[in-house]
């Protein structure tokens, strides 16, 4: 690489960490380059208030693309020299989402022949997870590994002795792990632990821009390497330590709160001033002659028609920005969509793997794509241009930036950075690393729900043009919305360009022929041959796996799930057998809540009939949705004489809905008539899973479109718009497993049992017939239908007239609880009575949070918690009746031999 490509640019004489250092006493101690590479900022995080801000990573600080790419490429060349050509040619590079996806890819390029994969926080329907791990200090912690080639991460685990030199001694390909900083080593240890358990290998290389570990952290890594019998090398550009005085976390949080309050006051004053200016303008317009008014309005309409994606216009930054800088007054920003002609078959990044062959194709195509961008820039090609990537999509925009930099040469000043999901305080001071931030809603249908996203150091940077690069999954209406990313950029530049790179999804290309339908389509299973429900109550779009041994001890399943070694849907928990005391609790709960459930059943059914009628097809999400679907069917027949079709299908978090079941439904019913049904919402994970899976099905299956809206009995999480109630109360069907759900297990999806044309599987526990209360539950609730009819009519009218838009309040609460209790994984926080019950029956519970004053609804929770030795903590201001916390770092040592929680684990 040239000197120009490897030398980072230093603009500020003042160190961009001075502001934080002076106020909190934080200091960097290390080699001479460290302060050039890093600045400091603050963020809201209960575990680490400070943020090391890299000047060469291209995430928070716009930098020359050649500098960003050169930093990673040079590290890759050093890894190649360390390993030797032969071992380097067989190495595999793994980068970390979201910050190091581009850096890791550049390291792989420096190795030349290495395939590349990065972790992701975006589940992709239909793509099987090959592993996962946790990043304990991050704002968003769950990492998924979704390689198209599952053998990419596999090593042969040979037993040859490990030694020095330049080869890996036959122990499988060396795994090179790349992150932007090596702060404690926890993330790398979690990764190696998870992958080594699946594919042992003899050598790992850790790569980072900076190594900021303490002496204790270094000793811990050495001990870990010795424990697993592997050699672990470290390659970094710079090294040092962050010196943190006592109490810095609390003082940092107080400083963030203080700055946010000041900025909120400033924003309020700006809004008021803007309102006064607009009122003055309106008054002047009212005084102007009518002909002049018409002319002004016509000019405004013409400008908006010419630039529909820039209607936010120029002026002050809108609410939500910190240290926002107004754009100089001028005409609305131009909007240009650039067609790149991205090479077919080349992935947009390393989410599913990126091979040397892909690299060769991309390199050949880059100059022509840069020419197209330069032509679209027009006169701005001689100005200051920002290439802006999107969260995990870092490598594609980075390489477009390096190609554009080479094409324009000295004619333009090209910079590169990306958006992020991490909230960081912005302070407009030369001694602070994050001067400004733009805030806009997520626009890629994220798995963790809607929320704010950020672009740092873009506002006020004087860019003549900004090239926003997104993948096709993220090119959504939210991107183009009045408060979306494009509009926010238009407030601070004169020209916004949009490049959409095709999202790569493993499998057949869109032009490939659809696979043929199976010769004999499977038919639904029905009782009494499968389930204790009557044949007319429900048709199960499942295959019967009753003769297959699938159960595993709860503790064994939890360890495999959290380590990434298995998916929860690949096995079944041992069915809980309730004690006499617990059965008595169920009976009492059912008697007390039957009328309440009947009202909710009636309300949600009447809403569905009014909005999706006249003959909807009910499709329950097995198995919690099945009793609710049967009750809705009974209500429609009892009140309206309707005999509604009802089926149960499987949906699996992280893998989507059963596509074979969808094909069956599309062949037998109009997809527009299908209404999906579930029991309750927690934080909304299944709601989002269903929407993503149905969108993917429509793209690949000839356009058959199902409505993703779910109808639920209770929506305490505020995740859907069709519900019977939003109260979090005990639905007795949540108290038990198969014995209240037709004696059917939860669903199973395992490659050796479920083929491409098979339904997902489940078991029918005929042997539990003596304790089955499935039909008793239905009959008890249905017996109250007449009693609640008047209430239902009033409630249904109220719901139909109300604004029922999802609020996602539950998701916000789950994120808060995850951080407050140091779990840092929303998947381990299960809100609501139903989800908490599932934690106690199926998972390894850590503790239960109960809303202070919650009464009879939680009696069964307290009994189960007592049986498993799980503490119940009374808390205030809980939006749910209770929340179940799964053990955040589970090993079988976290429970005793009896499955009870070990105190202090």
Low-confidence stretches: 1-12, 134-141, 156-170, 285-320, 508-520, 560-566, 890-905
How many beta-strand runs? 33
**Roughly how many Å is the radius of gyration?**
29 Å
SS strand fraction: 15-25%
The helix count comes to 23
Approximate helicity band: 25-40%
Question: In one word, what is the shape?
Answer: globular
The largest pleated sheet is described as:
6 strands, mixed
Question: What is the averaged pLDDT score?
Answer: 81
Helix and strand composition category: alpha/beta
Termini distance? Answer: 51 Å
The strands making up the biggest β-sheet line up spatially as: 1-10-9-8-4-5
Question: Can you walk me through this structure?
Answer:
It is globular, with a radius of gyration of 29 Å. The protein is 35% helix and 18% strand. The protein has 23 helices and 33 strands. The strands form 10 sheets. It has a 6-stranded mixed beta sheet with strand order 1-10-9-8-4-5, sandwiched between helices. The N terminus and C terminus are likely disordered.
How would the blueprint of this fold be written?
Blueprint: H1 3-6, H2 18-24, E1 27-30, H3 34-37, E2 38-42, E3 50-54, H4 65-83, H5 85-89, E4 92-95, H6 101-111, E5 116-118, E6 131-134, E7 142-145, E8 175-182, H7 186-198, E9 203-211, H8 215-228, E10 231-243, H9 248-287, H10 290-306, E11 334-338, H11 356-377, E12 384-390, H12 395-408, E13 413-419, E14 437-441, E15 452-456, E16 465-471, H13 485-490, E17 495-501, E18 539-540, E19 543-544, E20 551-552, H14 554-563, E21 572-573, H15 580-612, E22 617-621, H16 625-640, E23 646-649, E24 651-652, E25 656-657, H17 659-668, E26 674-680, H18 685-700, E27 710-714, E28 722-725, E29 761-762, H19 774-782, H20 785-801, H21 809-820, E30 829-831, H22 833-842, E31 845-851, H23 859-868, E32 872-875, E33 882-886
Parallel strand pairs: 4-5, 4-8, 8-9, 9-10, 11-17, 12-13, 12-16, 16-17, 18-23, 19-29, 20-21, 22-23, 22-26, 26-27, 27-28, 31-32
Antiparallel strand pairs: 1-10, 2-3, 6-7, 14-15, 24-25, 30-33, 31-33
Helix pairs in contact: 4-6, 4-12, 11-12, 15-16, 15-19, 15-20, 16-19, 22-23
């Amino acid at each position: 690489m040239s000197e120009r490509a490897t030398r980072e640019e230093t603009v500020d004489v003042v160190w961009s960490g001075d502001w934080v250092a002076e106020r909190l006493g934080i200091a960097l101690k290390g080699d001479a380059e460290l302060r050039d590479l890093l600045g400091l900022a603050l963020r809201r995080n209960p575990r680490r208030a400070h943020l090391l801000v890299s000047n060469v990573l291209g995430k928070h600080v716009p930098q020359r693309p050649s500098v960003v790419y050169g930093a990673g490429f040079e590290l890759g060349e050093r890894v190649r020299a360390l390993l030797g050509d032969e071992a380097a040619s067989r190495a595999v590079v793994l980068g970390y989402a979201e910050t190091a996806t581009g850096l890791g890819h550049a390291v792989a390029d420096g190795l030349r022949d290495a395939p590349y994969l990065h972790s992701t926080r975006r589940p992709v329907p239909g793509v099987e997870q090959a592993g996962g791990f946790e990043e304990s200090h991050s704002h968003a912690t769950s990492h998924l590994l979704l390689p198209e080639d599952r053998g990419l991460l596999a090593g042969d685990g040979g037993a040859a002795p490990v030694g020095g030199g330049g080869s890996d001694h036959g122990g499988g390909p060396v795994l090179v792990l790349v992150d932007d900083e090596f702060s404690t080593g926890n993330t790398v240890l979690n990764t190696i632990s998870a992958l080594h358990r699946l594919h042992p290998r003899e050598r790992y290389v850790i790569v980072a821009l900076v190594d900021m570990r303490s002496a204790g952290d270094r000793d811990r890594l050495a001990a870990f390497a010795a424990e697993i019998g592997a050699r672990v090398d470290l390659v970094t550009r710079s090294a040092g330590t962050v010196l943190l005085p006592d109490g810095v976390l609390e003082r940092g949080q107080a400083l963030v709160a203080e700055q946010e309050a000041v900025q909120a006051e400033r924003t309020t004053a700006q809004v008021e001033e803007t309102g006064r200016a607009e009122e003055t303008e309106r008054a002047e317009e009212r005084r102007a002659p009518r002909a002049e008014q018409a002319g002004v309005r016509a000019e405004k309409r013409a400008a908006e028609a010419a630039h529909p994606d820039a209607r936010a216009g120029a002026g002050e930054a809108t609410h939500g920005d910190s240290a926002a800088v107004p754009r100089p007054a001028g005409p609305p920003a131009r909007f240009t969509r650039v067609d790149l002609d991205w090479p077919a078959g080349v992935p947009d990044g390393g989410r599913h793997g990126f091979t040397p062959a892909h690299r060769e194709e991309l390199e050949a195509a880059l100059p022509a794509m840069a020419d197209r961008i330069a032509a679209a820039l027009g006169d701005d090609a001689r100005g200051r241009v920002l290439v802006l990537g999107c969260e995990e999509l870092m490598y594609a925009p980075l390489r477009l930036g390096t190609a554009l930099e080479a094409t324009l040469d000295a004619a333009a000043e090209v910079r590169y950075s990306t958006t992020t999901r991490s909230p960081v305080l912005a302070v407009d001071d030369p001694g602070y690393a994050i001067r400004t931030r733009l805030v806009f809603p997520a626009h890629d249908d994220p798995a963790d729900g809607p929320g704010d996203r950020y672009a740092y150091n873009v506002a006020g940077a004087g860019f003549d043009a900004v090239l926003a690069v997104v993948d096709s999954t993220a090119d959504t209406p939210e991107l183009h919305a009045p408060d979306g990313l494009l509009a926010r950029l238009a407030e601070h530049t004169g020209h916004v360009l949009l490049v959409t790179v095709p999202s790569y999804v493993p499998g057949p290309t869109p032009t490939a022929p659809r696979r043929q339908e199976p010769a004999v389509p499977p038919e639904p299973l029905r009782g009494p041959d499968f389930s204790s429900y009557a044949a007319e109550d429900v048709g199960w779009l499942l295959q019967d796996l009753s003769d297959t041994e699938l159960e595993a001890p709860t503790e064994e399943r939890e360890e495999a799930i959290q380590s990434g070694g298995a998916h929860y849907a690949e096995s079944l928990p041992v069915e809980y057998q309730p004690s006499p005391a617990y059965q008595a609790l169920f009976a009492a709960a059912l008697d007390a809540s039957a009328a309440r459930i009947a009202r909710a059943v009636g309300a949600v059914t009447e809403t569905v009939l009014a909005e999706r009628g006249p003959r909807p097809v009910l499709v329950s999400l097995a198995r919690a949705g099945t009793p609710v679907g049967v009750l809705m069917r009974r209500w429609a027949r009892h009140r309206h004489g309707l005999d509604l079709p009802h089926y149960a299908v499987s949906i699996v978090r992280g893998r989507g809905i059963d596509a074979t079941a969808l094909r069956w439904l599309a062949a037998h019913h109009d997809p527009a008539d299908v209404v999906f049904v579930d029991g309750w919402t927690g934080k909304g994970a299944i709601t989002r899973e269903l929407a993503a899976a149905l969108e993917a099905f429509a793209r690949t299956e000839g356009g058959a479109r199902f409505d993703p809206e779910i109808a639920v009995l209770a929506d305490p999480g505020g995740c859907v718009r069709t519900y019977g109630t939003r109260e979090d109360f005990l639905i007795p069907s949540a108290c038990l497993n198969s014995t209240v759900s037709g004696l059917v297990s939860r669903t199973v999806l395992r490659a050796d049992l479920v083929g491409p044309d098979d339904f997902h599987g489940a078991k029918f526990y005929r042997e539990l017939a003596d304790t089955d209360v499935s039909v008793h539950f239905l009959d008890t609730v249905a017996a109250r239908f007449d009693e609640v009819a008047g209430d239902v009519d009033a409630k249904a009218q109220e719901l139909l007239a109300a604004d029922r838009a999802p609020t996602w309040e539950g998701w916000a609460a789950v994120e808060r609880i995850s951080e407050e209790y140091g779990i840092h994984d929303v998947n381990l926080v299960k809100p609501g009575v139903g989800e908490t019950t599932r934690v106690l029956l199926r998972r390894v519970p850590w503790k239960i949070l109960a809303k202070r004053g919650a009464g009879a609804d939680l009696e069964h929770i307290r009994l189960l918690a007592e049986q498993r030795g799980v503490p119940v903590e009374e808390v205030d201001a809980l939006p749910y009746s209770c929340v179940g916390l799964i053990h955040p770092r589970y090993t079988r040592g976290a429970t005793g031999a009896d499955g009870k929680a070990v105190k202090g684990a």
